[in-house]
Specification:
It is built from one helix and no strands. The chain is mainly α and about 50 residues long.
């Protein structure tokens, strides 16, 4: 049988942690502003459409 040992991602070639962190930060910012936008839209709908 083949040996399926765990891959050490901290030493693996090809990992770009700076790009990963930038992508994650961008995703978190998008989620925050997207959620705030949806809440604002729903609040404005509640005010103006009732």
């Amino acid at each position: 049988m083949a040996d399926h040992s765990e891959v050490a991602y901290t030493t693996a070639d090809g990992n770009d942690y700076e790009a990963h962190e930038q992508t994650y930060e961008g995703f978190i910012m998008l989620v925050k502003y997207g959620t705030a936008s949806v809440i604002a839209i729903v609040a404005l709908m509640a005010i103006f459409l009732t």
